[in-house]
What does this fold into?
Amino acid sequence: MRLASTIRGVSYSFGSIKEVLAKANDPKSGDDLAQVSATSNVERVAARAVLSEVTMAELRENPVVPYEQDAITRLVEDTLDERAYAAVRHLTVGDFRQWLLATETTGEDIRSISAGLTPEMAAAAAKLMSNMDLMIVGAKCRVVVRANNTFGLPGRLSSRVQPNHPLDNVEGIMYSAREGLSYGCGDAVIGINPATDSPASTAEILTRLDDMMRRNRIPTQHCVLSHVTVQMEALDKLNCPMDLMFQSLSGTETGNEAFGISVELMDEAFDLMNAKGSTKGPNRMYFETGQGSELSSDAHHGADQVTLEARCYGFARRYDPFLVNTVVGFIGPEYLENGPQISRAALEDHFMGKLLGLPMGCDACFTYHADMSQNELESLKVLLSSAGCAYLMSMPVGDDIMLNYQSTSYHDVPSVRLLTDKKPTPEFDAWLSDRGIWDLGQPGPNFGRPEALL
Amino acid sequence: MSFTRDMIETLRISMGESKPMAEPKPATTVAAPPKQIFAPQPSASSSKFAKDAAEHTTALVGIGHIGTRYATDVVLQFQAELAVAHEAVYTELPESWARDNGLLSLQSQVSDHHEFLLRPDLGRRLNDESIRALNQAQKGIDVQPILADGLSAVACMQSGVDTIRALEQECKALGMTVGTPMCARYARVWLEDDIGARVNAKVAVIILGERPGLGTGDGLSAYMVYDPKIGNTDGNRNMISNIHQRGTRPPEAAKRLAALAEAMIQQQTSGVNLKLTGKLGEVAGGGYRAPEPRKRLVEVNR
It folds into this structure.
């Protein structure tokens, strides 16, 4: 296969589709660290030109990690919807981008081919798109799922309440959760990253959350984001309530090994959750991802971080999740250096996840050593909502007191809803209205009054 | 007249000629909204919820709202906390600081602060000059203490010397030999493997600035490894975080680190394989930052 292009008389050639995919990426410090990025902006465009003529069939035949070497490649290949694939296999990536953007192409049309796309195809399309392209298509895609709430409907923006505590002090967690609920946050999930990864503490936090949700009749889901094996033990042995089961995913088999998981383990977790989970479902899983995690565990196989991120979604869709969240700025500046890179990655991840059929949310965030300002972060939240992002995080002043990073605040979620004319999930919206927290698209008398909740 | 001009003229007339907006209504005195005081000052806060919550969490809750946004007082506190965190990240350790404090001066392969943030791989290896400088260091010791900037030079300069000197004393008190105290610039945790192997230490301890959180930039963490060598991973290490005046104070941290070093040498291992039974379990503690009472950072004096 010849992979070459010419710009102003200078020719550029590439050794493999993997190299073309990497060099076509928007600039990312993590691709520089992995030494896979383009050496100049012109070479980057040359790679995009080559990529625009690569067909979807060629992408399927050339996954960035070979079939023989990687369980995620095998999972994607062996379970691809052949009929949906046949509908797009002849398209070049350039044609595919235009088809996605065309006015005639609806969200339903995109949904009909989604299961025939490999992660590499979604990543390739993203590389030919500007930020606004990504937003237009992201907003078109519809992924609606259901646990207790019906999530991902058009015109809706949800949020996770993330009331973490450095010592898992359950009282402290409950104070923070009630504060968040009083701002209309928490319709995606009330989810706690525990400081202690034990079945007993996972079960204790879930039980207390469950009590609080029952007392106040709150239509939402709860989750404790301990390791999946810890949650399995809490669910199976301690019989605690568990609306959603969580795990971080990686885009390669070796990356998942570093997370202590495999496809077989996740299959087992999924079966257990379907048997014993405490919501009606049918969607019961919650996954988190983020560009750069494969490189950080030396599991990137020379591939770029956007393509590897798409492969996380290829893994996630096996389990029909209720939530998928890209924790975009958490990993640090060696992977996403600054505001433009973090914003770009957020829009790429949202687009790729939606295209592959997932209910995508984004933890728009930065660590304090990344070069991103608070104002840039606030802007990103509005961009994400405009792009149809299903949910954002939320915590007191956006400050995670356990994980030490800056994310979305309890005040940001209602602000973004006002700016972009979005509502919470229908079930939660009805509850907020009944409690006088948020009514007819405006703050109600109990807005920001956590004392009104028990 | 053209169709376009007609259309423009008709719309202009229907929308108020030269005044598309009505006159503003006459101004009336704007009543100041009730003062909202940043919550962790429970005495000043009117919210019982905020007062009760402050006993269980340092999260900023019960802070009220103006519309859907923060009160001015909260905005200023937030911006001050953010500025403190950023200042800690961007402060660099002066080149002469190590020597001025009687420590052997080393530097990783990183050459400036920007590169330090982007190239963790270079922060894990000594540069050539530092490798030569190690000729002056003692070899074949039990414990090699290393101070470093990490992600907060502010923390390193604030409690670093106290911590490394206390560690020396505690190790000697337990009968262990201690290497030449040294300080590395632009250092990542794994630099202890490179240094520890070169001085042939049984245990290497690197004490370095933590990634700052909101309003805090002065915490140190210490990472220890038995048999330091390139290729060790985080699973081979034990750590103590939150070392500063309001958290684990330097003398206490030094006691715990020395006890861990002794156990590592006895058991000839570290990290997940190190058995932390009995009193050692308490000493090793958890790896998590204990909650610190938030402090009000902004006072206006006029």
Observations:
- Chain A touches chain B through 41 residues (CB under 8 Å).
